[in-house]
Structures are given as C-alpha cells and as structure tokens.
Amino acid sequence: MSLSLLLTLFLPQCLCVDLTYYVEEGQNPGALVGDLAADAHLMDGISRQESNHITFSQMQSVTGSSQLFRVSESTGKLYTIQILDAETLCVRNTECFKMVDVAVRRGETFMKILEIKVVIKDINDHQPEFPNKQVTIQFSEDDSKGVRRSIPNAIDRDVGILNSQVTYQLENKVNEPFTLSVSKSVDGTSDLSLTLQERLDREVKDSYMIQVIAKDGGSPPKQSVLEVLISVTDVNDNIPVFSQNVFNVSVGSEDDGSLAITVLSAVDLDSGKNGKISYHFSSQTSDIVKTHFKLNDVTGEIFLQKKFTSGQKLTYKLYVKATDGGNPPLSSITMVLVNVINQQNNAPTIDVNLVSVSTGNTTTISEDIKVGSFIAYVKVTDHDIGKNGIISCDLQHEKFQLQKLRTNKYKVIVKNPVDRETKDHHDISIVCQDKGSPPLHSESKFSIQVMDVNDERPQFSKEIFKFSIQENQKSKISVGFINATDPDFGPGGKLTYSLITDSKHFLPFIIKDDGLISTVMSLDHEFQKTYKFKVMVKDNGIPSLNNSVNVIVEVKDENDNSPYFTFPSINPFTLDIVYYPYHTNNITVLKASDSDSQKNAFLRYEITGGNGKQLFTIDHYSGLLSFARVVTPHDAGTYDLQFVVKDSGTPVRSANTSLSLKLAVSNKTSEMLNAVYIQSDDTVHLYLLIVIVLVSVSVSVPITASVSICIIRCNDKRNAAQRSGLNPSNRCVGEQRHLMCPSYQTTSWPDVSTAPSADQDIGHSTLLTGSKRGRESEDDSKGVQKSSTRRMKLQSSDYQVFSSSFFTTFIYFSLFPPLIVFSSFLTFLLIFSSSLFTFYLLFLICFHSLNFLDIFPLVFHFSLTICLLLLHHYSFPFFFFFTFLPSFFPFLFFFYL
C-alpha cells in the first residue's frame, strides 16, 4: 500500500484545513491514512509520560453521513473502515475528498480539533460504456451537407478528471460521407452526432456501418466501440432544450409523495411527433435513486415514492433525458439535485455481514464446526445524539452468542456444538436498542443452515427381509422393497442399493435405486425353492459408509407339474398272479411322483375302470393294490384295471395308467402269492436270443475241442514214429498222457510186467476192433523188445493207454450218437431251468418280496446241477468237460445281471 501525504500547517484561516491526506480508492478496510500526532507535531516538546494522556476521538456528524474512517484513540493514527469507492462517494469531474474532524484531549482537558481533508484518488477502473452495442440512425437522401444525427454517448463512471474524460473518434474508413461531431453537455458528458459531408443517394447505397471508438484519459486508457448502422431514408433536426441546465430541489425526509417536488420543462422547435417530448431517467441515474423518485414521462413531474430512512444519502442526483418523437429521436439531458432535510428520530440500524452466504440472509456452517468459530460480523449505527445514540445489542440462542468487539461492533460465534440430525436450521435474531425515552429498538434476522457431515451409517428397518413370489411369473415382477434410512443430508443421505453376488451363483434379481427388488427372469419352484443373498446399501458421502442385510426370497409353488407313475413304468403293464387261499390280500404297490411340493405334490390313487366285480381295492394314499374280498375260483381271469393318480393342487392335475392282471386261483395252501409280470415282446426276444447263443456255444465248443484234440494226437504219433522208426500207432506222447489219459497219470512203473495187465484192463473196456488192434500193437512190441526190452515195454504201455483214450473219445463222439443227444438235451435243460429261476429271482427283487422260500427253488436247482456234473465226471471222463462249462453259463449270466 502506497499512501501520499501532503502536510499543510499554518495555512490561511480561510481554508480551515489542518492536515491533507491522499488515499487511493479500492484499498481494503484498515488501510493507514496518516499519523495525526506526528504530522500535527502534537508530541513535540512533551514528555513520554505526558504524551500517554493525549487521546484522539473522531467527531460524529449529525447529518447522518456514514463513517468512512476511524482514529486510534491512543496513537492518533487514522485508518479506513471500509473500501472507498470514489464513484459512489463523489461527483464526476470534481476533486473527491472527505472532511474528518478529530478532537484532541489531554486527560480531561480539551486541546484542539484537527480538521483533516482526505482526498480520495480515483483510479481508472471503469471503461467508457455505450448504452447499447449497436444503434441505428437514418439520413434522408435529400439531406444536404452538414446535416447531423445524434448518437448515444459513452459514460465513464470514474470521477477523476482524466479517468472520466472521454474522447471519441471514428474508425478510419475510406470514402465515408460522415464525420463525428462532439460537444459538451452540462453533466460533463459529450453530445455525439454524425455530420453528413455530402448528399446521399439511396439508390447507390442505402446503408452504412460506422464504428465510433470511445476512449478515456486514464493511463493506460480504456475504450469501447459503438456500431452505428446508418440507413438512408426520407427527414427531425431539432433536439429538445431544457429551460435550465441544472434544477435544485429541497425536500423534507417526512414529506409524502402526493405532491410533485419539481416540474421539468423542455422545448422542441419541431412540430408534430418530432416536437412531442417524453421524459425518462437517463442511464446515469442509479437504481437506488430510482427507488425513491418517480418521473411522469409526459408532464416531467417528479414525485417521492419512498420515505427516507436514517443513514441514507442526503443529496441525490437525478439525470433526466428529454426525447422527442422523431425518427430517429433526438434528446437532451439535464441534472436534478435533490437535497433531503432530515426530520426523523431514528432507531438503530443493524448491518449483518455473513462470513458465508448461500441464499439471501442465510449462511451455512458445517455440523462439525468448532465452538468459538466466527459466523457473522455485526455493525450498528444510530445517527441520533446523546442518549438516543447509545446502543446495546443482545442475541438469545442456545447454540450461538454475540461477542462485542468494540463500540457498536460485534461478532456472532458458536456457543455450543451443533448437530444437523437434531436440528438443521437455526433462526438468529439480533436486537439492538438505544437509551432514548422512549427507547427505540431494531431487529435483524438471519438464518444458519447446518450442512451435513457424513457421520451416520445407513440402517435397515429389519434384520432380515423375507419375501415370497409365485413361480412362473413374467420377468420384471416386483418382489419387495428393501428399506434403509440415513439421517445424513445431501449426498451423505442419498442411498444406493446393490446385490452382493459371486461368480458361482447366479441371482435372477436386480435392485433399483429406490430399493425395489424385481426379477430378471421367470422363476421355477422346482429348480430352486429359496434364494438367500445379501443386499448392500451405501451412501454417497465422502467417505462413503455402507451396511448389508440378509434377504430371503421364497418361490411359492404352483401346480404346474402333473403327477406321473414310476410303477408301473410302462403302459399297459402285465402282471400274472396265482392266488393261494389264506394268503395276504396285498397284490402290489403303485408308485407315482410329482415334481411340485406341499399340497400340490400330495397324491391320491383311484381305480377308474376294469373293477366291475369289485374284486380289487387300492389305498388312496399309499397306492397299495389288494383284494377287496375273498377270492374264489370263479374270479380267475384277466382284468384290465385302469388307475388315475391326482394331486391336491388347484387346478387338479392327474395321470393315468393301466394294469393287465392275469389272476389264477389255486386250491393249494401257500404262504405266498405268486405275482410275476411279463416283460414286453422286445425283452422276451432279447432273452430268447441269449438262450439260443448259450445253447449254440454249449454244443459247438465241446465238439470243436474233441475234433481238435484227435487231430493233434494223430499228428504227434506220426511225428514220433518217424523220429524213432516205429509204427506211428505205437506212440503216446507225454503231453497226450496228461491230456487224455488221466488214469495213466496216476500209474506207477515198477517194472514192465505191469503193462500187460493195464493193456488187458483197457482191452476189456473196448470193442472187438479195438482188441485186434491192441494185439497187433502187442506183436509189434514183441519185435521191438528184442533190441531193447526196457524201452519197448515202456512204449508198449504208452500205446495201450493211448489206444484206450483214443477209442473212448472216438466211441463217445462217433459210436454213441444217442448219448451225445441225451447229454446235449440235459445241458439245454440245465441252461433253460437256470434262466427261468434267474428271471424269477429278478422278479422277486423288483417287487421287494424276496425271502428264503423264494430262493429255495434256485438253491435246489444249483444243488441238482452239481450232482449231475459229478455223475458225468465219474461215469465218462470227457463228459465232464462237455457239461461243466455249459452248466455254469446261467449262473455267470445271473451274476452279470
């Protein structure tokens, strides 16, 4: 901050100024203006102790002018108390200054009054401004040279002589038939007009665009541009003229607005509409002035429309423009000075300056504001004198208080902590009262809005939300609302809902911003009966707070599935029954299922047909089919029973099946009721095919094996004879002994004399041809024995064993076809009976009635088969191979099943 000081002492008394200071406008409040004690040399020749008794006080004006400065009581330094605006405080084109009177005292003794002149230096902070950016004027084509047309002038709101001095010029354009004429008016502004330099020809050119540049005298200069659109047309050449340049008017502060305070008059020498004058406030008249005065635009009368109050200006400047009705209109401006005479005894005036203003007279604070924080600055003024000007102020509130700074200066601070969730709005009332008689008081009100801090977590109205929805509904069906609240305000109280899901489980739901859960697809009770998931809610505060809750959605069942029979599983189903007297009446159990649940899956069985004799009954709930009465031989026959199973849903759904029951009545007494179902044709064909294959294998395998063995034995004999030089028929190799001569394997060889007895045993069990060939072999053996006795006796025994085994096999396969047929037939019976008992066992297992009596026939059959196999083994050695493998095929097949 730079301040300039001009100290003027010992001036002639006519000037009546002790000190003169210069200060620039626009500086912040509290700017130092000058040091009165030092500049007035009041401390010269005075000791420090005596100087402490010298005090300074600023004199108060009874005219009610606002305080612009303050003086330090002890130091005598002069400061500004508000931002100085030269345009508001002073008149244009004059020196802008304010007088300040300061009383100097030494103790209780009055020393002198210092008259101080503070000159407010204007700065160039405004540029010239035209009323409009563009205007349109007209020239007639018969206008002669020198004809002028007025255009609006620019106003510079600066008050300094140079800063407010506006100069005009035209933008340089070649061959334009216009020049700019400038003349000064009484209010210090310029009257502008465009002068025609040569006659116009509308047919050649009917319009012109000219730019008028307005530039002030500041440093650096500021400027603005007015675009003038000139249209050439066919003629108002006289402007209105006021009767005087300045009108002075005095008015009392208590006057009403019924009478005109003055009447303005202007004359226009033109006739017709060009000479008809209307009056308006010019653009230089401030809006505050217009609220106090009203102008009649026809008569020129000025009225009061609002009473004056204490603390307002005592002099008002009104700028009135007289405009004729020509085209374009011509106008002139005059100034009206209104001096207001104060006639009031005023109450104190309270001025509240809020630290933070949101709207109007409402300020905002955060709910976490600290106790003692500054809220508002309060200034109180009363232009009365004496006790009428002594003021006291008070604020009654539990959260806020008024703290005095100095005389008539206060601040509003926080007294106790505030909580928006408890109360978010506080109305503050400051009451100030003077000590007059009667005392007058004023009240100023403003509001404090407590802004929210996100300190509350969202809370759900329930711990668990449970909803239910009917299955098979369309998508986008509402399930229910999740309700959560947050006492915070603004973003901290605005909630957002979301579903907590994972990638493994799909949830067929979505949740909207208002907490409404809806489906995204049709739900199926049979697929999933209950959905359990979590919903998270979070506010939009910073930092964001959240909470979650469990949600259970139950999918209500709808009777959308019909029951179906699981037994009998085929339709129709055939069941053979042999009824024995004194046996249980139960026949079988019908089984059905339903994919629905609860009452929709509660099934009821009924017989709908085929029970004309009322022989059968069914348990409605278990499906147990039984005889309804005593069965007689006359009841034997086939019954085509029709059954229906129904659920208990709405609407009722059902399924039907049929059972072909073949009933046979036996006179024998038995503890069991034989019930065998007959498979379908395809199944019977399958088992028949299996039996045929087994029989074929049983026949073909032994025949092929026997023939193969005979061929191998013959080849072995021939090869052995060639190697030893013997007859091929005299050899029986060791391998063949082990394979075809089981009795030979167990024979010991103590000496060669045992061979003939073995040969004789074999010869007794063979036919004549076999004995003859044995004797021939014996002769051959005797011939060979001459060369090697031991070796020949051994070979003779081999030959006898081989001959016995070979002829046994040959007789078995070739000479006894009836025996082969019988054995094959016996094997076939074993296979067939084993298959039947296997099927019967499977039937018993399916019907859950298997007990010891049921499997007894199968055990008996197995024992019989073993006995037959042993008999074949000891009777015919090779017959064992032929019957053992086929006999066990049914049992292998049974275990496979």
TrEMBL record:
Keywords: Calcium, Cell adhesion, Cell membrane, Disulfide bond, EGF-like domain, Glycoprotein, Membrane, Repeat, Signal, Transmembrane, Transmembrane helix
Location within or outside the cell: Cell membrane
One BP term from GO: homophilic cell adhesion via plasma membrane adhesion molecules
Domain Cadherin per the UniProt entry, residue ranges: 23-130, 131-242, 243-350, 357-460, 461-565, 587-673
TM segment ranges: 686-712, 799-819, 825-845, 852-872, 878-896
Location of region: Disordered: 751-791
Chief localisation class: membrane
Signal sequence extent: 1-16
Membrane topology per record: Single-pass type I membrane protein
GO cellular component: plasma membrane
UniProt-listed SUPFAM superfamilies: Cadherin-like (SSF49313)
Sample GO molecular function, one term: calcium ion binding
SMART domains: CA
Compositionally biased residues, Basic and acidic residues: 773-783
Name of this protein: PCDHD1
Species the sequence originates in: Acanthosepion pharaonis (Pharaoh cuttlefish)
Highest classification ranks of the organism: Eukaryota, Metazoa, Spiralia, Lophotrochozoa, Mollusca
